[in-house]
Amino acid sequence: MSQKKYWGNFGQLNETEAFKQTSKDEFREDLLPLEDLDNGLLQGKTPRRDFLKYLGFSTAAAALAASCNTPVRNAVPYLSRPDDIVPGVAQFYASTYVNGGETISVLVKQRDGRPIKIEGNDLSAITKGGTSARSQASVLDLYDTSRLRHPLQKSGNDFKEVTSFEAIDKMILQAMSSVSGSIVLLTSTINSPSTLKVIEQFLAKYPGSRHVQYDAVSYSGMLLANEMSYGKRYIPSYNFEKAKTIVSLGADFLGTWLSPVEFSSQYATNRRIKKSNPALSRHIQFESMLTLTGSNADDRFTHKPSETGAVALAILAKLNGSVSAPSISDANLAKGIDKAVAALNNSKGEALVVSGSNDVNIQMIVNAINEAIGASGSTIDHSVSSNYKKGIDADMASLLSEMKSGKVGALFIHDCNPVYSYFDGGAFAQAMSKTALTVSFNSTMDETTELCRYIVPSHHWLESWGDAEPKSGYFSFIQPVINPLFKTRQFQSSLLSLAGGNTAPNNVGDTLMVAENPPIKAYENDSYEIFFKNFWISKLGSNSVFETALQEGLVQPASVQSSGNAIADTAVAVTSAVNSMITAKPTFNSASVSSAQSGIGSAKGGNVEIVFYEKVGIGNGSQANNPWLQELPDPVTKVTWDNYAMISPQMAKSLLGIDVMNNKKQGDDYEVHPEKPVIKITVNGRSVSLPAMIIPGVHPSTIAVAVGYGRQSSNKDQSIERIGRSATNAGQNVYPLISFSGVTLASYFAGTAEKTGDKYALAQTQVHGFSENRPVIYETTLSDFKKDPKHILRETKEELEGLIAGGSKDFVKDATIYPDYVKPGVKWGMSIDLNTCTGCSACVIACNAENNISVVGKKEVARYHDMHWMRIDRYFTGNDPLNPEVVFQPMLCQHCDNAPCENVCPVAATNHSSEGLNQMAYNRCIGTRYCANNCPYKVRRFNWLDYNGADSFPNNQKPIIGSYLNEVTEQMNDDLTRMVLNPDVTVRSRGVMEKCSFCVQRLQDGKLEAKKTQNPAVVRNLKTACAQACPTNAITFGNVNDSKSDVFKIRNVEQTDRSFYVLQQLHTLPNINYLAKIRNTDRNIGVMEEEAKKEHS
Amino acid sequence: MIRYRKFFNKAFASFLFILFISFSTSAQDGAALFKANCASCHKIDADFAGPALKGWKDRVPGGDWIHKWVHNPSAMIASDPYAKQLFEKWKPTIMTSFSNLSVEEIDAIMKYVDEFQPAAPAAGAPGTQAAAASQGGSDNSLLYGILTLVLALVALILIQVNKNLRKLADDKSNIQRGKPVPFWRNKTYLMAFVFVLFGIGGYVVINAAIGLGRQQNYEPIQPIYYSHKVHAGTNQISCLYCHGGAQDGKHANIPSVNVCMNCHIAIKEYKGDPIIREDGREVNGTAEIRKLYSYAGWNPDKNEYNPDRNGDGVPDGARPIQWVKIHNLPDHVYFNHSQHVVVGKQQCQTCHGNVQEMNEVYQFADLSMGWCVNCHRTTKVDFLNKETGEGNKFYSIYEKFHDDLKNNKMDSVTVESIGGTECQKCHY
User: Fold this and answer.
1) Which of A116, A631, A1047, B113 is the most buried (most CB within 10 A)?
2) Is A237 in contact with A556 (CB distance < 8 Å)?
3) Exposure string for A275-314, b = 16+ CB within 10 A, e = fewer
4) How many helices (H) and strands (E) does chain B have?
5) Which residues pair with B275 in a beta bridge?
6) CB-CB under 8 Å, A66 with B209
7) ipTM of the modeled complex
């Protein structure tokens, strides 16, 4: 099995010269200030005088620094300390991350009044404590320097500050009284019951006004299809945990589709291998590009985007013959359809088919398939609706045409950015100029807001009150964890004051129903707080129940309340604000199928087809100014800071003349340099030029491009100031390439692509630091595993035994000359399950936030200077390099008990603790980088430059910004942004090595708690930041010395046959074990076959 | 018979007494409880922030009044006439409720109050003995130094004598040698001298460099002349009353102004022994209390807080006090007070010195890494004794140490043995 090849790029696949060279040379680039000395010291351009200057300067600087007085530091206590704040002790508050309908229940860690970290809320029955990369990163958005700081009024081409909310309300009300035409409130999907109530009041006050919900990435195909099929416009709730067979037609449900955190957690329940009776769900993916979900599939088949409908029809036809199947020309695809149908038939009632298409007809066929396989009532719950997305594309189209004809008198915009994200954003911008009154409640000066007459910026969600109903009957609350940083007002409060306060008949008043002590000051700009509290106190019956609910952050149906919920005892029954289906199995309108079939029949394809997708990090672009998300490598392509045209090797050959598979030279030319050839994509007469990223597994005639990039102010020069430093110059906006079919925004397009001859640099990670073909991953198939669970590690075990001298059996003790040190008390260990790791990258961002990881910017990433302590390695493997299998492997410091890095440090800055931690003492490190050279896992990160402004001479950073450092580092070093730093973790300065510490600050905190409570069980299953963030619980952490801990059980009881250590034959004795990946497929994935061959030979 | 009964009575009484001391809290605990909970506001023989406690029994209505009062004073004020009367006298101050104190503990405190005898000059707060010890250890290095010098001198003279003798011997046997070089021009001597100078110079420079940023004995002038001697020494206020953060988290925390005002709402003048500065000037305690009032926005003449006219939520003029921080650790050091105070059960004085004797606080320890590490090497942890069940039960997981202790391979478990000198215990 060690012959099975895992490759990260084509160079590694083909073992080209360039690859071999680069993998040898770890720190490739020249040292900055010594470039002049390249010709040897004597010929160098740095003469004796310069040398003396440097010498003199450094001596003088040292003397100056030494003789300066120690600064006087002040300690300023509170005037009157709030009872629940002890400076230096963190507090956690339940809240909810909501971004355009996407809803995740979270806990917010607040330290000395500052929110610094987002954690999942374990009580949530929907997300079960999981988080996503974007929710983890949203804490940084709070401190975004480009947030609007006060209300604004347009004046000429610029804006001027409005001094008070009363003043701006007055102006807006006056403008409203004189407008002719309707008043429209345009928002993203809102699933907050109280906000909907506020909107209802606002609309009631102004007859003829209406509320339009608009989603940048539309799901209206699904909504409309369900209306046709089941008579109601809604999205049902999906139960992936009940599905034994999952067929996804292009739905990236683990990455971006609908509610990925919820689905990941459900999906993982059937991807975990139990020791007794190992079983797995079967996941088959049909798609045109390589998505995160497709990467995790057991079997994956590619098709043209225009064939999605045909694939759906073919599946339905084979299932029950209700439709006639179209002909599928691709034999491999046809085989895949047969496989999928067989699997679906095998698990009727326990199967699920989902589709990511926005085409009503395809979604209707998918509904018919789900009816045919008995999904309704089991894997699809129609009695609980999902309220993540509600926007209907036709509503937006009609709004635009009304605006064009001047019928709209006033447009109020909240939490959406149609000028940027609507395909016809240009027309929208023009139409806005025809609208008399335009008001934006967005919190940043985005493309739409900068065209509005009045801006009343809203709070960040961490400053807000609120609620959300992600699924009908499931409520999640938002409570502020910090006073508003700027002079902003919550959108709902703004609406309430525009609606004239108390106009509705019920329970909205200026006073709170329950007296509070101290009484809430009825700030005019906080009127929603009172509204919100009254709303829920009346719903929940009493203030005390409301407070419990707020403390837990949740009210859920009694059936799903976990034992940890205090609210469960009070048996609250809250009726859903959303009218949902009452029956779990609504009647299916089968007549709709035939019309859908004819609709699909008319789908036109082309030689080149373009699909649009969201990236896990950037999504629809609303958080594009978040440097953490921009620097997060895309799980599949590993590219940061840009979008690109994802194409197949076949298309690269035909379009660009680069044969990465067979021509080593061409492959190297493409791969070694960050500069990639640019192609021009033209769809519907609009074109965009993007660098090509060649990824195997993409359908040969498909180009995939990510939305969410290319944010730009209408005035280019103001982009940095208005949109933000990180979003500016990151990628191209491809929304304009989308078009409207009359019913929905289409999902794919036939277009053309041509080579431009230009080049554009893409900053990619994981193009350096390889393991030189030593096996780092083990995998097998379910059937092989059932036959012989021990076969995965047999060969490695034999190899290890061969390494032991003297016939002894203990590899740990006897295969080394070093003594075996005991770990007397706690020994920390981590276990990572490759079966449930989906590559979603929430852990990477969680690590960023917890450990103050630097953002280095695109230029530095391109020079392999990325600083992530935790990376997710993506390997391609399998028999077909053009449609490979994909494995994700989270890679972080392995905390080796016999660590190669420790032995080579000349100053003992890195050494081992009695708890099994590979320690790194930053202020001892002198930056020789020997440790990084000697680390076989390549997890050590060196601070090449002063990324944090932590240098003793702060001005040292300035000159290199623009040349070596990107402007984003300046953004991260702003005093405002620095408020996000975790005060328990040192900010590293230049010239220092750093790496994963196993979140030692959390471990120390946990041990302290255990010692205070005299209870060792507290540290049994402690969680590092990455383990906490993981939506699938793929990462387990704890005290290995404790036989009751989860890690101990996984390693020694439950998963003994799957548990391996990466590169264990080096006798590094890592403290992280991985569990071998097991796929549920009957394909030969090249594991057993190799062994069989060997046995024969 | 009568004699026997007397004896029996005595025996019974002592039996009862033993029962009493073994099942309830003793008067000694009463003293500790008093200091921890009451001393910040009450004195036994004089009015303080609250009334003097001596003779309480004669004043209160009796029964379990005192228990109810301590557990919930504000409820008593609402219902009980004597409590109301007491409140009228002391308002606006209301006693903090101590619902955590058990009836036995309250009895112990009151017992201590009853038995209290005014002591001769203040004995000092608990834990004073720990600090004094580290100063000792007489230094022999001067003696050795002089001895070395003398020996070196003797050696030099002997070498010279030897040289002269050899020269004489050479002259006698007519061996011709070059003109002798005087020792101040002898290269060997010069080199030796340079090396010694280099060694001494290096030693001095390195030591000075190590000392950079260290501030032992740092005693800055504070915005208010706050005397720890008066508060913690004379008035015996527990350290944790003001620096309660030391039990909860990494910072001990300087108390917020409202904590000062808990007592100083009643204590308006300084009437204690005169406080003399180092330069001989006397500190006007009452004036310093007035400074506090200014920070708190309290009007001592009207006995009320200033009105909040500017609408910022605090009395007009109120502002936090900008104390000068004395104990500064570098950013790369993580220090947690609760680890040392709660888990390690260290006295504050161990690191901060006898604060209760300092008028103005100075930095007692040098807070160097060597100082930390030395203490970690020698301090024993509160290790669980599996037989008696004493000690911190967290350490039950250290099976190896339990075995080693049993087999006498190890006599005690120090902080170092559980990893207390490893880098990442303090640097992360």
Assistant:
1) A631
2) no
3) eeebebbbbbbbbbbbbbbbbbbbbbbbbbbbbbbbbbbb
4) 19, 5
5) B283
6) yes
7) 0.83
